[in-house]
Amino acid sequence: MKTLDYTHSKPGADNGKSFRLTRMDAFAADQWARHCLQAAIRGGARIGADLAQAGLAGLASLGIEIFGFMDEADLDKALNRLMQCVTIRPDPNTPDMTRALIAADFEEPETLGLVRSEVFRMHVDFLLAAAHHLFPVVAALLHDKAHNTPTA
Known about the structure:
The chain is an alpha+beta fold. It has helices at about 25-40, 50, 55-60, 70-85, 110-135, 135-150, and strands at about 5, 20, 85-90, 100.
């Protein structure tokens, strides 16, 4: 599975903290994405049936704005599942050593939001990149849908 290291570089208490992001396997990612889409639909998002069943590809076309449609319980569940893909690298001298996150790992809410955005992007960007490379017309449609989707 793909991993990515993210080091927080913005000034503040979390500056220099390093996180390892690991992409979910294909089945887990697809299930997570379908659950996110269904939760957004329940929350009032106008998503076509094809897109709702498209799993990660559908979620990729809508972007992180999809979370704005979810009720609090569904949103917490979706974000918690996404954050299970993140570990912290507590010691810069041993970069291969990681551990599970705890709440105290984030001193600033902005850092948590940035890490969430990075792990979300890691899960969906490869689909958008493939669409742009292999299917330019589909990519244009996905881009158009993402920008015309009402947000909360």
